[in-house]
Specification:
The chain has 8 helices and no strands. By secondary structure, it is an all-alpha fold. Among the domains are: about 70 residues, Serine Threonine Protein Phosphatase 5, Tetratricopeptide repeat; about 50 residues, no CATH class. Helix 2 runs antiparallel to helix 3, helix 4 packs antiparallel against helix 5 and helix 5 packs antiparallel against helix 6.
């Protein structure tokens, strides 16, 4: 019995150690398929016959158009030396609090050249100090008509309007001015003040 058991175990061991028999008509076992990216085949098609008519090609976009040129800034008014010194006298008088002498000096400058935007702005400051807000607003607006980019006139006008509780109207006006002249800094700064107020 021992002998039979030993023979059975040996037969079992030898059966496990053998490799499977490959049949000659099947060939080798298949290998794994490699990953290949899919690329659809393109088939060249001849262009349609137009019968001699001109072929209209699709738009390709063409060159990028040049940006619109910004309008040139207004020419700065030129003053002779006596007008410049008179303007400086007005600024000095206003700095000292002598509004009467300053007003005379700025009106003298404007009689020589009514395009002196800063003289209009300074007259607005004087009118505002006297409490005549409508005259001050008129002078600030006159300065802006002459030089739409003048920072000081926009700033003083915005402050005056907001003190009179007209910030919403000023907001609309400033946005329109910015849309008209996007490069001007004065209306932008005044809009910031208006939004904060």
């Amino acid at each position: 019995m021992k002998r039979a058991l030993l023979i059975g175990l040996m037969a079992l061991g030898s059966a496990c150690a053998t490799t499977p028999e490959v049949k000659k008509d099947e060939g080798p076992p298949p290998a794994e398929t490699p990953e290949v990216p899919y690329a659809p085949k393109t088939v060249a098609t001849p262009p349609p016959s137009t019968g001699g008519a001109e072929v209209i090609k699709p738009a390709t976009g063409g060159p990028v158009p040049a940006p619109a040129a910004e309008p040139p800034p207004p020419a700065a008014p030129t003053f002779d030396s006596s007008t410049q010194s008179r303007f400086k006298e007005g600024v000095a008088a206003l700095g000292k609090g002598d509004t009467a002498a300053a007003e005379r000096a700025f009106k003298d400058v404007l009689s020589r050249n009514d395009k002196a935007a800063y003289a209009w702005t300074n007259l607005g400051v004087i009118e505002e100090r006297h409490g005549d807000f409508s005259a001050a607003e008129r002078n600030y607006r006159r300065a802006i008509e002459i030089d739409a980019g003048q920072d000081t006139a926009w700033d003083y006008l915005a402050r005056l309007e907001c003190r009179q509780r007209k910030c919403p109207q000023m907001d609309s006006e400033l946005r329109a001015a910015i849309a008209k002249n996007p490069a001007a800094i004065g209306p932008r700064n005044a809009l910031v003040y208006t939004l904060l107020a």
